[in-house]
Structures are given as C-alpha cells and as structure tokens.
Amino acid sequence: MNKTMLLTGLCLLLTASTLHGMSPVQATPRIGPDACWSPDATIMEKIRKECAPLSGDGFEACFVAGMQKSGASPQAVAFSQSIGNMGYMKDLRKHGPVDIAFVVYPFRANENQGFLLVNGDPPQVDVDDPGLLSPENLIKDPRYLRLKKQYPAVALWPGDRSDSDYPLPERTPDGGLRFMVRYRLLNGCHACELAGHARYAFEFDKTGRFLGTTYLGVEKPIEISDFSEWPDSDPAAPIAVAPGQTFTLTLPSNPTTGYIWQPAEPFDERILRFIGSEYRSGKTGLTGAGGREVWTFKAVGTGETRIMLKYARPWEKDAAPAKTARFTVLSVGEMKKQSVKP
Question: Of 1, 52, 261, 325, which has the maximum CB count within 10 A?
Fold first, then answer.
C-alpha cells in the first residue's frame, strides 16, 4: 500500500467533480438567508427548456437570467455566480463565525447536492474539494487497509449531501469550530459497491480562519446478510408519508452487468427531495452476485406524486431499459418524523 494508490482515488473524486460540473469556488461577500432560492419544479423545467440548446458560457448566462426572471434575489444570483453559475443555495444554517450553505447543482448527472462552509476565511470552503483531504492518515488506518483487500479499486467519493444532519458542527475548547463530514468509499465507480465511509473534520479557529482538515476514521456500511430483511419495494403499494419524513425504496440490482437504476423522469421537488442512493451487496461470497440499490427520499411538501425509475446502462442512450418501476407517493397529514421501508 502506498500514497500513489490513494492519490489515484482522490484524483477520481476530482475527475468526478469536474465531470459533474463543479467549478472553482470564488470569494463572495458575507452570505445571509436572503441569498437562498427555492424554485419549484415548474420554474426549473422552464429554465431547462430555455437553456438546453445552449452550452458553456451561454448556458450559464441563461440559467442566471432564468433565476432573475423567476424573482430570485440579487443576493441569490450573486451566490450562484460565485460558484460558477451552475447551482444555487437552498438553505443556510448559521453557526457563527462559519455557516453551512446547502447547495443544489441541478444540471449534474450525479451528486446534485453540496455543502459549502461560508462566511469564514476564506469566504467559501467546498467540502468536496479533494485537495483539502490529506490521504496520509487514511492509508495507514488498519480498517482502510482491510477494506482495500476486499475492494481493490476503493476510492473516495462525495457522500450524501442532502442529509441535513451533516456537516456535524462542534465547538472546540479554544472557541473554534469543527465540521465533521462523511465521504463514501466506493469500489471504483459511482454505482459500485459501498465499501464504507471515511470521516474528516474541517477545522476553524474562533475568528473563522480555516486551519485545515483532520482525518477521523473509517466506518463500515450496513451489510445485508439476509435479503429478507430488505425486501424489494412493491410498486403496487402506495407510499404514505408526511412532510419531514424520510423513506427508502429497495430494488434488486447487479452493477457487474452495467445496469443501474436511474430516474426515468424528474422528481416533483415541491413534494419530494432525493437524498441519495447506495448499492449494498449481500454476503454471498459469489463473484458477480447481485445486491440491492437503496434509494432514499424525504417528503418536503404535501400532495400526490410518483417516482419513475428505469434499470438501464447509462451509456446506451437510445436503448429501452431492462426494467422500469413506478411508485406512488402520498404526502399528507402530520406524522412523527421517522424512516420507513415500504
């Protein structure tokens, strides 16, 4: 095991970020709640249609113009411009002197959510900038070395950036702040097996000056020893939830075939928020054996909507999917927040 192998993984994270449209973060004025923007699905669909024929700078300018036409505040537009005109801030959590900006990148193929640590020094810190994650302590960790034997192509990828529990803030004894962030350890690709999670802390002093990151350790994922514990979700059974409640869909999958589950149509962002998906393999020990994809959603509004998924190879653009699945979601009433498995 050497640094070169892990640095290759970090390069994969950087490459994935670049391919998905991430732009270098630029300095911005102090960010407040007035920089948030909450477009509904109708607004975003209109912007997509208007901007689709364009590319590069033209597409970016079209997106910003669409924000302005829809009533986004000057502060929201300025924030979007500061991150490369390809995303917007949906929420701001204040901690002082450093705050958390929850960002949506609507035009990426994957990783549509992100965290920025803002209002410190520097004004923005992107937790998914691989240059901020030192690999030295990770590659020495015995838990990582054991994962490496089982998953030879393991590499760092962004974690679930829709989870409002992260980054976890914590005050340090000297009055500073630290934010704990999780990263997925995937076996070589976005749809590959989840080997575990790596945790890092982003450290700031009491004035908000960024001090660097600290490696905290590796966590193993939940393993499925018996698929009866994770039965396939039934498309015929409506899913009843309430605003604030999370739920999961579990679907059979085998990424060794090249097929993965993908959205067949956009989700209604007025009712649902897509949190993330993970592949979980069974403990069969058989090469090429399948597992389950677990898709997690959160209800953010009320009403009836549907989730349409297709099982297809991403590179076969014109081929019919091998399978499709349609789920009906009813978000009504008031329920105690919990996680459910339909």
Answer: 261
